[in-house]
Amino acid sequence: MINLEEIKEQEIDLDKVYDYGAFPDKISGRCDNCNSSYFKSSVKGGVFLRECRECGMKKSI
Question: Which residues of the chain are modeled with pLDDT < 70?
Answer without folding.
Answer: 1-10
